[in-house]
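PROTEIN DESIGN WORKSHEET
SECTION A - STRUCTURE
LENGTH: 270
TOKENS:
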């Protein structure tokens, strides 16, 4: 009997999107054995793997990353992750199946068991911060302009007070935009046609032999000499790069279009 944690199917796509959003360094911190953690880290392509960690060790790992001079974002779901989530600059807990302690210690709780919501959370946070900074600058700028106008006699005290109230209302209304979806004036993207769906299904079926080859190659490796095993791995690597990777990138584009279509349906012009 073999028991093992499976890697989430969306993990690779999520990590790629995180790097696109500007995440400079991704570290896998786990309490699992070094060999298991190294295999997962190599598969996902993270920058570093720290294994066999206790809860206090995870906190030390967060402090070590913070010493690099950049904010640290920690993602976890177990009770062992709670101290590290609290120590990080931004702690994000997967609350759907995670421990209550991690949700209480985190700054952000994702209520669904999907890693891709992490990318959405980053986009929401950055948009909210952009709106907040915009409101601060606009409010200060208009207030300074009103004081200068009042100093030169262009505004009476009553007019200045009303102008300041108008500035406050405008800034508050602008900040309320953070509660809604991003504004989009583009037309809704077209639905996938039957031809596109059939093409995607045909591409998936065409890759079935490559998927089967992965399992069969894994079974043969233990019985092959080292040189033949290396040849088999090189052959499999070429197949993955030439056939599977381009297909996965096409799938990501399709999913991105569908997500964008959903966002546009829920957005409204301001």
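SECTION B - SEQUENCE
RESIDUE ASSIGNMENT:
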């Amino acid at each position: 009997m073999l028991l093992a944690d499976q890697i989430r199917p969306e993990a690779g796509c999520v990590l790629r999107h995180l790097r696109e959003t500007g995440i400079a360094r991704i570290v896998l911190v786990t309490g699992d054995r070094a060999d298991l953690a190294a295999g997962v880290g190599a598969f996902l392509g993270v920058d570093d793997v720290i294994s066999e960690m206790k809860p206090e060790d995870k906190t030390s790992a967060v402090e070590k990353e913070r010493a690099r001079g950049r904010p640290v974002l920690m993602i976890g779901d177990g009770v062992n992750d709670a101290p590290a989530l609290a120590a990080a600059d931004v702690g994000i807990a997967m609350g759907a199946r995670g421990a209550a302690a991690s949700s209480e210690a985190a700054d952000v709780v994702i209520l669904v068991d999907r890693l891709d919501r992490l990318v959405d959370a980053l986009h929401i946070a950055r948009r909210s911060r952009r709106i907040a900074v915009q409101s601060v600058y606009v409010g200060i700028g208009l207030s300074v302009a009103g004081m200068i106008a009042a100093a030169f006699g262009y505004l009476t005290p009553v007019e200045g007070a009303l102008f300041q109230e108008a500035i406050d209302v405008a800034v508050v209304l602008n900040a309320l935009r953070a509660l809604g979806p991003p504004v989009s004036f583009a037309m809704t993207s077209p639905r996938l046609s039957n031809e596109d769906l059939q093409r995607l299904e045909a591409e998936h079926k065409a890759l079935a032999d490559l998927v089967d080859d992965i399992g069969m190659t894994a079974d043969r490796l233990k019985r092959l000499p080292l040189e033949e095993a290396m040849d088999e791995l090189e052959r499999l690597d070429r197949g993955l790069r030439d056939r599977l990777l381009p297909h996965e990138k096409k799938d990501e584009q399709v999913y991105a279009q569908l997500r964008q279509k959903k966002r546009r349906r829920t957005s409204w012009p301001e």
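SECTION C - NOTES
The CA atoms of residues 202 and 250 lie 13 Å apart.
The first strand starts at residue 27 and ends at 29.
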